[in-house]
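Justification of computing resources. Each target in the renewal requires a structure prediction run like the one illustrated here; the chain below, 234 residues long, is used simply to show the kind of job we budget for.
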Amino acid sequence: MTHVVSKRRKPKLFVLVTVLVAAIAVPAAALFVYPPGTRPNGKTYSMHAADWWKWAATQPVSESAILDTTGENCAVGQARFGLNWYLAGTFGGDPVIRSCSVPFGRTLIFPVVNAISGAFPTDPPAEKTVAFQRSVIAGTRDAAQNLEVEIDGKPVADVERFYEESVPFSFRLPADNIFGAPAGTLVSPAVDNGFYLAVAPLGLGDHTIHIHGELGDQVVDVTYNLKVRFLVRF
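Resulting structure tokens:
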């Protein structure tokens, strides 16, 4: 789920994204969600959140994983993130079902509900600070409700405990980006907060993840039907 709020000709990003993701048909004992405070593949949740935006926000509309309604864009941009494989949410609206293949051995990382705020080149100096950008999205944690994730039909307990605040980061927007900004626009500094899950590599075969989240009257419901394979071209 994504909500964009702008002040002047879209100088400010405020994006709320809720993601519903897929899980795996492995025995319950084999399923592992990294607890808060751990470092999946050597990075904290806060670092992964920054990388998630560097993946999701730098895709043109034609290849956007957030706008994807079938799963055809699932593999776009994944190659540069090593053993991590990111899953996207939607901009709200009707439930979405995506089907895609994932290479064996990848850690699945996705937000349930998250928010981003970033400074544009035209913003005044007072707004080009990490403190100001964090203040823009300060209410995300309290506004989030009904956060639910099911992996292969098994619910993840206490999704609310997976709240994080990202490290500061920057990214450059491509042409035809999802925010409608000019190509090459640098968003810096940017910060994120929200609820992220990192799921250890799933077993070979078919899996399903379903995620549900709400922010006010915005509801996102996404299901991923995943096929974990030894080799996937992307």
